[in-house]
């Protein structure tokens, strides 16, 4: 009896391109207009990610509410600069960028074979997690009274994203170090999530990867024999 396979969805390549575009935009100079522009691009990225991954309607609805509130806050930042409003836009970005990878991981975890979309989806989820933590550091820096990195001061958004991906990959250059909590605890959590994600992603590839000649044998009903 043939098992029903989950229909493959395509579109993770576009999600990956939108993530890269968001990262490039975050590197540009801008004070008041940048949070609003980032949220607009992030909203499109998350919408595409949720659509491709087949997210449940309740998750899409919650994301739409977050986007609406965040865009209102971003508009207020453009009109009247305020630290709490800036922190709110970063917090909204974190919420959006955490919802998307959860839906992507759920989608690729149900796939029975590893293909290009699976690999692109895993990479997109990994980058979204790094971006989410980057905006988390920016949010903490905007809210806490002392500097996030001690003598190095509060990070600009490019520095926050750089520190996030260095922490996620456990590279640890040591040029930027959180001075106090909660940033220290957040960095530890990010490092743990980064390692767990890589372990599970590799396990998924090893478990479900099938060379073409194996697949032909299985479809023909013959025992699969690996070729040297």
What does this protein structure show overall?
The chain is mainly alpha-helical and 228 residues long. It has a single domain (12-209), classed as Helix Hairpins. Helix content is 70%, strand content 0%. The chain contains 8 helices and no strands. It has helices at 12-26, 33-52, 57-79, 83-109, 116-143, 157-168, 183-208, 212-219. Helix 2 (33-52) runs antiparallel to helix 3, helix 3 (57-79) runs antiparallel to helix 4 (83-109) and helix 4 (83-109) packs antiparallel against helix 5 (116-143). It is globular and about 50 Å long. The model is unreliable at 1-7 and 222-228 (pLDDT under 50).
Brief synopsis:
With 228 residues, the protein is an all-alpha fold. The protein has helices at residues 12-26, 33-52, 57-79, 83-109, 116-143, 157-168, 183-208, 212-219.
Unreliable sequence segments: 1-7, 222-228
Count of helix runs: 8
Indicate the CATH class: Mainly Alpha
Q: What is the overall shape? A: globular
**Could you tell me the radius of gyration in angstroms?**
20 Å
The structural class is: mainly alpha
CATH topology: Helix Hairpins
> pLDDT average, as an integer?
79
The overall strand count is 0
How do the SSEs run, as a string of H and E?
HHHHHHHH
Provide the helix percentage: 55-70%
Strand content: under 5%
- Largest sheet data: none
User: Based on the structure given, which CATH architecture is correct?
Assistant: Orthogonal Bundle
Question: What is the count of distinct domains?
Answer: 1
Give the terminus-to-terminus CA distance: 30 Å
């Amino acid at each position: 009896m043939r098992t029903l396979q989950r229909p493959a969805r395509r579109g993770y390549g576009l999600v990956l391109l939108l993530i890269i575009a968001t990262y490039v935009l975050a590197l540009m100079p801008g004070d008041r207009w940048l949070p609003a522009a980032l949220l607009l691009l992030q909203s499109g990225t998350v919408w595409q990610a949720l659509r491709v991954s087949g997210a449940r309607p309740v998750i899409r609805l919650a994301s739409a509410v977050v986007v609406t509130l965040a865009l209102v806050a971003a508009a207020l930042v453009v009109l009247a600069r305020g630290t709490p409003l800036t922190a709110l836009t970063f917090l909204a970005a974190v919420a959006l960028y955490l919802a998307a990878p959860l839906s992507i991981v759920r989608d690729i975890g149900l796939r029975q074979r590893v293909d290009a979309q699976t690999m692109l989806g895993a990479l997109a989820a990994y980058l979204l997690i790094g971006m989410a933590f980057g905006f988390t550091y920016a949010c903490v820096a905007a809210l806490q009274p002392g500097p996030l990195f001690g003598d190095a001061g509060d990070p600009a958004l490019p520095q926050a994203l750089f520190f996030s991906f260095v922490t996620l990959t456990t590279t640890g250059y040591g040029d930027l170090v959180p001075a106090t909590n909660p940033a220290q605890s957040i960095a530890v959590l990010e490092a743990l999530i980064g390692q767990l994600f890589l372990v599970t992603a590799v396990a998924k590839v090893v478990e479900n990867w099938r060379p073409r000649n194996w697949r032909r044998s299985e479809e023909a009903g013959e025992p699969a024999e690996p070729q040297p």
